[in-house]
Amino acid sequence: MKELHLQAYKPGDPSLDFLYEMIPHHEAAVSMSENILKYGHNEQVKQLAATIIRDQLAGIGKLDSLKEKLKMNPQINKQAEEAYLKAYNNIYKTMITDARC
């Protein structure tokens, strides 16, 4: 996931930044859920994973559709993008740190 974060496209539009970051995040949630369906044994966890797959796939479709629409007329604001990415990086660092617990 860290590699996806570092490679994310930065178009200059914070809204597009968000969409470009969220799509691989959702894809990772799907992959993690598929993994637990394959190897997990707890039925409650497996039911939750199946729900996550369904919901995240729907979310990916919506995110991708909106991304394609916004790409046609991006709202370039490098200052806003810089502020957004600074806050995003702090959120990302917290997520990675919490995942190591």
Automatic annotation (TrEMBL):
It comes from the Bacteria. InterPro entries: DUF305_CopM-like, Ferritin-like. Residues 17-82 form the DUF305 domain. This is DUF305 domain-containing protein. It comes from Peribacillus psychrosaccharolyticus (Bacillus psychrosaccharolyticus). The lineage of its organism: Bacteria, Bacillati, Bacillota, Bacilli, Bacillales.
